[in-house]
Specification:
Number of domains: 3
Shape: rod-shaped
Number of strands: 10
Largest sheet: 5 strands, antiparallel
Strand content: 15-25%
Strand order of the largest sheet: 4-3-2-1-5
Structural class: alpha+beta
Oligomer: single chain
Distance between the termini: 139 Å
Number of helices: 7
Order of helices and strands: HHHHEEEEEEEHEEEHH
Radius of gyration: 36 Å
Helix content: 40-55%
Length: about 280
């Protein structure tokens, strides 16, 4: 019983000694971490306002702000650990070795991150633009640090890793697209009347933009017909709707004004007469 009391007394004395020795340091380290958290949020708010003025995408701004907060908190944590007397060099060396192994295992992810940062800061396209790249096209719905999401008119989505985008040839249509509609009419058609009808249709369509001005005119001469090019501009979300509406309006207006739409035709000439066609050699 006496030995147990002595052991308890020794533990109590050791706890008091440790508390007297490390208690103030723990309190100071805790205060440093709290100060780091508060300072990180303050600096993060400043960074958020600055990035908003730079017009970066919201997900990107959030990522950068969080990174800034973690860096500030990490600096305060290092100071707190030093205050507790913990040797940081062995810890940093161990983290370096672990980081090298993680980097080798996550080469694809790191490649996406590097490409994402390139896209974010060079800004070859933005959310809302219509782009075509790596045999895919669509409206940019989201740009993140790892991938870019494109949307189609059928409400499907395409997720492209950023490393597949960086360094590729990119076609950026912007926020408007130009339609390429062709209307074939017979050669004897009054072209001016047909063009005027088409211009009236474009002017009445709610999706067609007045600026840039729609382009209409004879684009080419085909066999037994004249090809009229109809090339108005519309906003990206209105592209598919505008194509159908304009085709339908042109068909209705041409029928009302007795303007024919040329049907495909081919002229066939027989050489050697009807007998050769039937397999009979002429005498």
């Amino acid at each position: 019983m006496e030995n147990q009391l002595q052991a308890i007394e020794q533990v109590r004395a050791l706890a008091i000694d440790m508390g007297m020795k490390f208690g103030p340091k723990v309190l100071v380290a805790t205060a440093m971490l709290v100060a780091g958290y508060v300072c990180g949020r303050w600096i993060g708010a400043i960074a958020a306002r600055t990035l908003h003025r730079l017009q970066l995408e919201p997900p990107v701004r959030m990522l950068i702000v969080r990174t800034v907060r973690l860096l500030v908190l990490g600096l305060f944590a290092i100071v707190a650990l030093q205050n507790l007397g913990i040797e940081l060099l062995p810890l940093i060396a161990g983290l370096g070795v672990a980081g090298a192994g993680i980097a080798l295992a996550l080469q694809g992810v790191l490649g996406n991150v590097a490409a994402g940062l390139t896209i974010i800061f060079t800004r070859p396209f933005r959310v809302g633009d219509y782009i075509s790249i790596v045999h895919e096209e669509g409206e940019v719905l989201e740009i993140s640090i790892l991938n870019t999401v494109l949307g189609h008119a059928d409400l499907s989505r395409i997720v492209i890793p950023n490393r597949k985008i960086a360094g590729e040839i990119l076609h950026n249509y912007g926020r408007i697209r130009q339609l390429g509609i062709e209307v074939r009419v017979p050669c004897e058609t009054d072209i001016e009347s047909a063009l005027e009808t088409i211009r009236e249709i474009l002017g009445a369509n709610k999706h067609v933009l007045a600026d840039p001005k729609p382009l209409t005119g004879v684009s080419s001469l085909a066999d037994s017909s004249v090809v009229i090019g109809v090339c108005p501009w519309v906003n990206v979300p209105d592209y598919n709707s505008a194509v159908g509406e304009i085709h339908q309006a042109i068909l209705a207006a041409f029928r009302a004004k007795n303007i024919s739409i040329a049907a495909p035709s081919r002229e066939i000439r027989l050489i050697g007469g009807v007998e050769r066609v039937k397999g009979i050699e002429p005498s």
